[in-house]
Amino acid sequence: MKKPTIALLALLSFTVHAAEPDGATLTKTMRCYSCHDLVKPLIGPPYQAIAVRHAADKELMVDVLARKIVKGGGGNWGVVPMVPNEHVSEADARTLAAWILAQVPK
Questions:
Q1: DSSP 1
Q2: Per-residue pLDDT tens for 68-82?
Q3: What's the CATH architecture for 22-101?
Q4: Quick one: CA dihedral 84, 87, 89, 94, positive or negative?
């Protein structure tokens, strides 16, 4: 039996990772646009309004918004509460929150 070569070992140990989805893609795949729009209010506030409201505290708000995306919440934008999105992972929720906070109008 021949010993495996270094090149063969390197090839066997190489793992292909799928690219992490970005926030824009996640808003579509996670059905966020059912309740939110970029610029106009729907059931929930527009992404740009959320970004403007929290512009001064972006770093802190990534965690706060990610938690709200997964667990839901209410009272911040009117009487309609945000429903929990338990199908969204914490990592995806953080990606979504960071993307939302970057949507400040130009």
A1: -
A2: 999 999 988 999 999
A3: Orthogonal Bundle (1.10)
A4: negative
DSSP code of residue 3: P
In DSSP terms, 41 is beta-bridged to none
Q: Tokens standing for 56?
A: 């001064």
Gap between the Cα atoms of 39 and 25, Å rounded: 17
The total of other beta-carbon atoms located within 10 Å of residue 41's CB is 12
Place of tokens 């992404």: 47
For 34-86, give the secondary structure using H, E and C. Answer: HCCCCCCCCCCCCHHHHHHHCHHHHHHHHHHHHHHHHHCECCCCCCCCECCCC
Name the DSSP class of 87: T
Task: Tell me the percentage of the chain whose pLDDT exceeds 70.
Answer: 82
Domain boundaries, the chain: 22-101
What are 83's two structure tokens? Answer: 């429903």
Find tokens 């309609």 and name the residue. Answer: 80
The residue among 106, 105, 91 whose CA lies nearest residue 23 is 91
